[in-house]
Predict the structure.
Amino acid sequence: MEAPPVSVLPITGGTINMMEYLLQGSVLDQALESLLHRLRGLCDNMEPETFADHELVYLLKGQQGNPFLLRARRSLSHPTVPWHLRYLGQPEVGDKSRHALVRNCVDVATSHSLPDFLNEMGFRMDHEFVAKGHIFRRGVLKVVVSKLSRILVPGNTENTEPLSLSYLVELSVLVPAGQDTMSEDMRSFAEQLKPLVHLEKIDPKRHM
Amino acid sequence: MQQREEKLLEASVESLISRVAHLKNALHSFIYKLENEYERLTWPSVLDNFALLSGQLNTINKLLRNEKTPSFRQQVIIPLLLSPDRDEELAKLTEQRVPVFSHEIVPDHLRTKPDPEVEEQEKQLSAEAARIGPEVAQKQIQTLNKLCSNLLEKLNNPRDDRDAESAAIRQNKPSFNTADTNALVAAVGFGKGLSKCRPPGPVAPGHPGQGPMMSGGPTLQQVTIGGGSGQQQGMGPGAPQQQGQPGKMPSNIKTNIKAASSMHPYNR
């Protein structure tokens, strides 16, 4: 079930269909420092930002095949900040030469009653994890270096265990649908991070 | 004939003296610099000084090797008069370094053989060289030559050789692991490895607590939500604590919810 087309979105919302371009890679813990140094040099000059987020993924299973997936994210370091709800569509299988994974993206900020609301709507939480790391910006490009941790006791974000010995590195851009100029910029930025990290278009369905 | 030789000898001695004087001055200034200005001294200027000294030694060598220069080895210096008295002339000539031409300075200044210790070492070295025999010596010479030429080659060759080597070294210490990348992407993409109903591993202590709730849950969940999967069963008890209670509530209104699930309001 895909997001409704632009024409049936409420007029008050007036959101433009945004596409997210994504490149992913990972870096081992021991190489993290060198990656952060390099990013600090390559990206915009700003105070290094760290974040700690708790993400819950909600599924709505209809009778037809694909469940509808929504991601709810809250900040562990800033508990009063609104929750962030995100929908990510299926990756666009268009241009094979496009270097990044492109998918439809809808983002909204919500109040703290989001989990209850989703449960009432019929969504059920499929999985949750904690992501802690650093975020960098270069123009519109966003680089997120995060350590994913598994939550051992549901609901308890203190008790976590890292998922692997690596940090996930994601390079993403949000652009309005129709603009296709970003993939070249992303590719050249990704080149600059080699050979520390290989950022590439990874199709999540391949690893199902 | 002899006059010509004498003139030649004099001329060559004169030039040798001037060259040596230059060398002495260079050494003097270098030592002064090292002793007094060592804080401000940079390595390139030290190298410059060494280069100057080496150049001057080279010219002296060239002068000595010149065919016009008579062989100094054949000349003999014999002190004719030694006196313990101070000699002003000599002192002036030698810039106050040799004020007295006495029997103390003669062994040092008129020496033709090397120092006794140096002589000892030389004797040892030549004995060693004689001991190992000519073939071994030849082999050693060849190895040394090969090493030197290898080193020179490495230093002189263009950068792509060096890049290949450094790339090889870098590959031994990879900074990322593709398997990890895939695992992380799968985890973020659809929760692989994060789902509640996971094979018991390090999370075993957490599971028994969920066990009783899970066994009560399935029958209800299967009725209330059509097509429930294994993952789905875990969701109810997996959700935060407060939802453990609502998980049991559907039992009262199960027929209503069953009907609702068949015509989901958000279906299109």
Remarks:
- Residues 182-193 of chain A form the longest helix (12 residues).
- The two ends of chain A are 19 Å apart (CA to CA).
- Confidence is low (pLDDT under 50) at residues 8-12 of chain A.
